[in-house]
Specification:
about 35% helix; eight-stranded mixed beta sheet; alpha/beta
């Protein structure tokens, strides 16, 4: 770590749980963020600002005016541009030392697996169950920690799924036959709600990267914006889970 980095990340280095060794882990780390929408925007911004050395961002949608209410990584002048490139430019402005790779196409499972093997943690910032199930399968197969967030209306949830024989996966919580057609486009969402969850995803990812994630295992956190309250639920490993039962 050079003098400039020690100055830039001084507030994190002062934390006993981080220190210079933890900050070096962050600098040496790689993260894959899938989805540059309401969740991925704050997650990517905070991870880049915190000093993550390499961030791979994946999104094949274009910026629309209706995105700007909550997708804070994009600007009005970015409307019509691919989100991956709009986000990459913003991250470079925040931290030019962060190596950002933008992927502007839909990934199949094999491509996603190859990317997951390159990184230290995956953030699922998507908005549909088929993609979430695929990301979960890949993270189980590659033993890559997964930080999953979701938000709609005035509610949100977040959980980190960590490798381990007793740790649950995303599909321990949701069966693959489970279908939910609700989306933010249909149901609406209050913009800071996705900000809260996306920021929490960045926080949990940093805990994973610095070796402070033991308390996250099997913990699902539910956020109610209207009552300004959090509820924590313990999710056990499903011994019959189709994805992780044999891991």
């Amino acid at each position: 770590m050079n003098k400039q980095q020690k100055s830039r990340y001084a507030r994190q280095i002062r934390l006993s749980q981080i220190g210079e060794s933890g900050q070096q882990k962050i600098l040496d780390s790689s993260v894959l963020i899938i989805g540059m929408g309401g969740l991925g925007s704050p997650a990517a911004l905070y991870l880049a600002a915190a000093g993550v050395g390499r961030i791979i961002i994946s999104d094949y949608d274009q910026v629309e005016d209706s995105n700007l209410q909550r997708q804070i990584i994009h600007r009005t002048q970015d409307i019509g541009e691919l989100k991956a490139y709009s986000a990459k430019r913003t991250l470079a402005e925040i931290n030019p030392d962060c190596d950002v790779e933008a992927i502007d196409r839909q990934l199949d499972e094999e491509e996603l697996e190859a990317l997951a093997e390159q990184v230290d943690v995956v953030l699922d910032c998507t908005d549909n169950f088929p993609t979430r199930f695929m990301i979960n399968r890949v993270c189980i197969k590659t033993a890559t920690p997964l930080v999953s967030g979701a938000a709609i209306r005035m509610e949100g949830q977040i959980a980190s799924y960590l490798p381990g024989p007793d740790a649950p996966c995303y599909q321990c919580l949701y069966k693959e036959v489970f279908e939910n057609t609700e989306t933010c486009a249909m149901e609406g969402v209050l913009s800071p709600v996705v900000g809260v969850i996306g920021t929490m995803q960045a926080l949990q990812a940093l805990l994973v990267l610095t070796g402070n994630a033991e308390e996250l295992k099997g913990k699902l956190m539910l956020f109610d914006a209207l009552s300004m309250s959090w509820q924590t639920i313990r999710v056990p490993k499903n011994p019959d889970c189709a994805v992780c039962a044999k891991t």
